[in-house]
Design goal:
Layout: E1 2-4, H1 9-41, H2 51-86, E2 89-91
Antiparallel strand pairs: 1-2
């Protein structure tokens, strides 16, 4: 049994920031559609009625990424404070017997565009 006593605050923050940034990119099309609907459904038919939706859609991945970074850092920092007092998470790790291959690659293959 292994005990996870501490995590790297910056490593957790970077990973969660990137994950939340990707989620922001996924949600962009929905905000663009809402901005278009707001533009065409406005009572005064102002061309700037849906500009808020467009601006928010562009800024959304950056805002989500920043929030994920900050929240990941806070969460990792709190984990480290709590783990000192209660002992951390217990992990059970196993080593596969020789010759047994994992169903997925342990080391990712190099990425290439070719």
């Amino acid at each position: 049994m292994y005990i996870l006593k501490s995590v790297g605050v910056m490593s957790i923050a970077k990973v969660t920031g990137l994950i939340y940034g990707c989620l922001g990119v996924i949600f962009v099309p929905f905000f663009l559609v809402v901005g278009l609907v707001g533009t065409f459904a406005g009572a005064n038919k102002s061309p700037f009625a849906g500009i808020f939706g467009l601006i928010f859609a562009v800024l959304m991945p950056l805002l989500y990424g920043a929030m994920g970074f900050v929240m990941g850092a806070i969460g990792a920092f709190l984990y480290n404070l709590i783990a000192i007092r209660v002992g951390g998470l217990e992990l059970e790790l196993t080593v596969p017997p020789p010759g047994v291959v994992a169903p997925y690659p342990i080391v990712p293959k190099p990425f290439s565009l070719a």
